[in-house]
């Protein structure tokens, strides 16, 4: 699993890890029953605190994406992928709504915004 940490991001590191693991699960690259890296090993690989990895794993477990087996590790659960995709779509809609409001406040027209989206899409 390849996790990229952006130390300059406003998003906390544990959230970056959660988001990327969530994407791996939703996309099917991480399958049900597959083990996640150990907390200590993962922290060592990423050169971050074990507390950060523990927090990310705990949050993923609260969401029902993973489960832990004491003394054995953390494994991908059998999440409701339709629900996860719907939740992800809702998040995208909220961010897009914010972007549209910002674009309108800056005086951008709908056509200019659509053109910008087309350019950035590629």
Structure summary:
This protein is mostly helical.
CATH class of the largest domain: Mainly Alpha
Mean pLDDT across all amino acids: 92
Q: Count every helix, treating DSSP H or I runs of 4 or more residues as helices.
A: 5
Which spans have pLDDT < 50 for at least 5 consecutive residues?
none
**Strand neighbour order, sheet with most strands:** 1-2
Strand content: 5-15%
Radius of gyration from CA coordinates: 18 Å
CATH architecture of the largest domain: Orthogonal Bundle
Oligomeric nature of the chains: single chain
Terminal Cα span: 26 Å
β-strand number:
2
- Shape from CA axes? elongated
Task: Quickly list its features.
122 residues, mainly alpha, Arc Repressor Mutant, subunit A, 2 domains, two-stranded antiparallel ribbon, 5 helices, 60% helix
What does this structure look like?
This protein has 122 residues and is mainly α. It folds into two domains: 13-76, Winged helix-like DNA-binding domain superfamily/Winged helix DNA-binding domain (Arc Repressor Mutant, subunit A, Orthogonal Bundle); 81-121. Helix content is 60%, strand content 7%. The chain is built from five helices and two strands, in the order H-H-H-E-E-H-H. It has a two-stranded antiparallel ribbon. Strand 1 and strand 2 form a beta hairpin. The radius of gyration is 18 Å and the shape is elongated. The model has no long low-confidence stretch (mean pLDDT 92).
